[in-house]
């Protein structure tokens, strides 16, 4: 029975793939390789990188297509993927063929953020180390605004402060630091107001004088 017979297409990308990866194989090969895992197959392709005048330049790209069950029994294809992409990629593909799909990164970002709102801060830090995708989500400003809002009321002053510093930095600031920052911001704005009003008055006075002549 297909390991993915009961899994919706929402786990696949637009082309119906569970996983796709392309890269140049390490020396001495340096061939360009691609591996694709669909709901039913593992497809491994390779393109020979040769000198221009070499006869091997006329070789067609190689391709192996196998169902998940056959791939799990095929040491040769597994070894080719191992040499091209490394052990971690091979292990990941083997897990997919066993039906162990990594559901979390396939969820909408909004759902992942809701999950992160219900875990400990230490767990968010750990999740952010998984890869670039999770690092981006775990440092998202909206996520930290929601975390901040779950602990205290968000005022207009805090909104303004967050525009300058970001909600994550504000979240880890203690109350005294936040109060001091708000006081400095209010003081700066208060100092700006008379200057701006003075400039506005001077501008209006200048226009009025010109209009009389």
What is the residue-mean pLDDT, rounded to a whole number? 82
How many strands in all?
4
What is the CA-based Rg, rounded?
Answer: 29 Å
- Please outline the major beta sheet: 4 strands, antiparallel
Helix content bin: 40-55%
What is the structural class?
alpha+beta
Count of helix runs = 10
Uncertain segments: none
The succession of helices and strands, N to C, reads EEEEHHHHHHHHHH
- Gross morphology is elongated
Count the domains. Answer: 3
Question: What share of residues are in beta strands?
Answer: 5-15%
Strand order of the largest sheet: 1-2-3-4
C-alpha end-to-end distance = 93 Å
Biased composition (Basic and acidic residues): 188-213
InterPro entries: F-box-like_dom_sf, F-box_dom
Region (Disordered): 183-213
Protein name: FBXO36
Q: What are the salient characteristics of this protein?
A:
213 residues, alpha+beta, four-stranded antiparallel sheet, 10 helices
Task: Describe the 3D structure.
The protein is an alpha+beta fold. It folds into three domains: 9-102, no CATH class; 107-139, no CATH class; 149-213. Helix content is 54%, strand content 13%. The chain contains ten helices and four strands; from the N terminus they run ββββαααααααααα. It has helices at residues 68-73, 75-85, 87-97, 109-116, 121-128, 132-138, 141-151, 156-165, 167-171, 175-212; strands at 17-24, 32-38, 41-47, 62-67. A four-stranded antiparallel β-sheet has the order 1-2-3-4. The chain starts with 16 loop residues before the first strand and ends with a helix.
Summarize the structure.
InterPro entries: F-box-like_dom_sf (IPR036047), F-box_dom (IPR001810). The protein is 54% helix and 13% strand.
């Amino acid at each position: 029975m297909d390991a993915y017979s009961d899994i919706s297409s929402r786990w696949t990308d637009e082309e119906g793939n569970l996983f796709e990866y392309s890269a140049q194989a390490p020396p001495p090969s340096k061939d360009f390789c691609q591996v694709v895992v669909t709901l039913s197959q593992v497809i491994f392709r390779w393109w020979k990188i040769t000198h221009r005048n070499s006869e091997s330049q006329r070789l067609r790209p190689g391709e192996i297509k196998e169902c998940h069950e056959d791939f799990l029994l095929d040491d040769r294809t597994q070894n080719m993927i191992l040499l091209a992409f490394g052990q971690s990629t091979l292990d990941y593909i083997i897990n997919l063929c066993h039906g162990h799909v990594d559901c979390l990164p396939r969820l909408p970002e909004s759902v992942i953020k809701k999950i992160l709102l219900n875990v400990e801060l230490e767990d968010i830090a750990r999740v952010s180390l998984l890869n670039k995708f999770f690092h981006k989500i775990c440092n998202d400003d909206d996520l930290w605004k929601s975390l901040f809002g779950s602990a205290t009321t968000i005022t207009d002053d805090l909104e303004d402060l967050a525009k300058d510093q970001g909600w994550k930095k504000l979240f880890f600031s203690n109350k005294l630091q936040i109060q001091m920052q708000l006081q400095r911001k209010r003081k700066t704005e208060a100092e700006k107001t008379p200057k701006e009003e003075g400039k506005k008055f001077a501008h209006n006075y200048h226009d009025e004088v010109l209009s009389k002549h």
